[in-house]
């Protein structure tokens, strides 16, 4: 969220990207594809891969040693948040974005709403769903990551933020992937299901979230789990159960 000069709330859009090469390779490409940007050599920042990790985590002023400090908490990382995700395989109509913007503007001033749209395509579009457990490559236009964050002192009433997120997620349903409505496993979302507290979860129950994360690869992962860990020793809220549990 952002504010205009006259104090009205608006949506701030930023575009960040990484080119896996050197600036001299990227400059002619950008001049050909996006000449209207008028980018100059000094507009490009070259960095190593590990430096890019610092950049993406807003730690550009730190050295890579900070990544070894597991107790470190970047002051920009929220203490409380709710996150959900979607995958998009067909272009969304303009009306979908208009509805998204209007809902972002309804967030109260004690919280921040962020929607990340991560483009796919390119080389990823050549990798079929069955190539690896992660299926969301070929045919996927982009991934959406919805976030709402709030300060720790607001934890007395977190439900209002969680409810806002669930309402937004419901609104986006018609415009994203279907059967299943896919999700990104690393943005673990317990709203879509979880294992029983005793660790004994049926294949049918786990399929609810398992197919959202892995599509038909879920069956292959269940097979591996059953073979390697039949007693389900290694588990968490959305781990894959053995077949006979």
UniProtKB/TrEMBL annotation:
<dbReference type="GO" id="GO:0050660">
    <property type="term" value="F:flavin adenine dinucleotide binding"/>
</dbReference>
<keyword id="KW-0285">Flavoprotein</keyword>
<keyword id="KW-0560">Oxidoreductase</keyword>
<protein>
    <recommendedName>
        <fullName>Berberine/berberine-like domain-containing protein</fullName>
    </recommendedName>
</protein>
<dbReference type="GO" id="GO:0016491">
    <property type="term" value="F:oxidoreductase activity"/>
</dbReference>
<feature type="domain" description="Berberine/berberine-like">
    <location>
        <begin position="183"/>
        <end position="241"/>
    </location>
</feature>
<keyword id="KW-0274">FAD</keyword>
<dbReference type="Pfam" id="PF08031">
    <property type="entry name" value="BBE"/>
</dbReference>
<dbReference type="InterPro" id="IPR012951">
    <property type="entry name" value="BBE"/>
</dbReference>
